[in-house]
């Protein structure tokens, strides 16, 4: 499944993703944020699993399987632009703000802000078409939730 999705993401003008593809792309973006500081910790993995369980109504095993598939996909994907384009095309603006909030939750899960995570989050927010104001509000909600 993710091999086909990865090939679709690599096409010059990929078709919009179905729900399953959008889930995998979002999860891969969460993994990419967590890995961007070169310290992919258990607390970040746990945060991703909880986001997936809440967002998609998955049990612990389902969230773990989705995260592991996304880890493999993220490792093979060349750039963040493809993930964000796929998510932007598949998700309404209000829900993309929720995506940014989830990314902030992962970035802040280890208790510290990292310059690499901040930079990737700014890029992702921009590519998702989320305004700086909405991104800042999403960060504040993520901080309050921790």
Automatic annotation (TrEMBL):
InterPro entries: DjlA_N, TerB-like. Residues 23-139 form the Co-chaperone DjlA N-terminal domain. SUPFAM superfamilies: TerB-like. Coiled coil: none annotated. Gene3D superfamilies: TerB-like. Pfam families: TerB (PF05099). It comes from the Bacteria. This is Co-chaperone DjlA N-terminal domain-containing protein. It comes from Leisingera methylohalidivorans DSM 14336.
């Amino acid at each position: 499944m993710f091999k086909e999705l990865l090939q679709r993401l690599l096409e010059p003008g990929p078709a919009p993703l179905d729900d399953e593809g959008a889930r995998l792309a979002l999860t891969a973006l969460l993994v990419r944020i967590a890995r961007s500081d070169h310290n992919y910790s258990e607390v970040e993995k746990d945060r991703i699993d909880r986001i997936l369980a809440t967002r998609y109504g998955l049990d612990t095993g389902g969230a773990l399987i989705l995260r592991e598939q996304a880890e493999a996909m993220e490792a093979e994907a060349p750039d963040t632009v493809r993930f964000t384009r796929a998510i932007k095309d598949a998700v309404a603006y209000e829900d993309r703000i929720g995506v940014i909030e989830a990314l902030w939750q992962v970035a802040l899960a280890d208790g510290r802000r990292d310059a690499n995570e901040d930079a990737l989050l700014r890029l992702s927010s921009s590519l998702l078409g989320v305004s700086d104001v909405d991104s800042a509000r999403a960060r504040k909600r993520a901080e309050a939730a921790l």
